[in-house]
Design goal:
Belongs to the N-Me-Phe pilin family. One of its GO terms (biological process) is cell adhesion. InterPro entries: Pilin, Pilin-like. This is Pilin. By secondary structure, the protein is α+β, with helices and mostly antiparallel strands. It is 26% helix and 32% strand. It has a 4-stranded antiparallel sheet with strand order 1-2-3-4, with helices on one face. The radius of gyration is 14 Å and the shape is elongated.
């Protein structure tokens, strides 16, 4: 499952940099792919980006059907909340529907 967190890491870094520069997360659909590439792998079927607000962004990673068991097709979310006074973003990891036993340590 750590591969799922790694799949979102590039997006987390570039979105944090964009927030630090602009004091908000990108909202245009055309620019989002530059920040969060929708890459897939053996264990990741999709990576998507959702803008919650100017100061909140969500990267959702969907597990492929090769993960196994009840984790197939489940999702984890990295949620970034920006602090415009500091130009920083605090990221938290959570699950949408993944059984706890499959979560990486950083998401428990």
């Amino acid at each position: 499952m750590s591969e799922m967190v790694l799949a979102a890491s590039a997006g987390r870094t570039t979105l944090s940099e964009a927030y630090a520069t602009n004091s908000q997360f990108p909202s245009s659909a055309s620019g989002v792919a530059d920040y969060v590439p929708n890459s897939s792998s053996q264990y990741v079927s999709a990576v998507t980006y959702t803008l919650g607000s100017a100061s909140e962004a969500v990267i959702t990673v969907t597990a492929s059907n090769k993960v196994g068991g009840s984790a197939n097709g489940t999702k984890i979310k990295l949620t970034g909340v920006g602090d415009s006074s500091k130009g920083t973003v605090a990221w938290t990891c959570s699950t949408v529907d993944m059984p706890t036993k499959y979560l990486p340590a950083s998401c428990k």
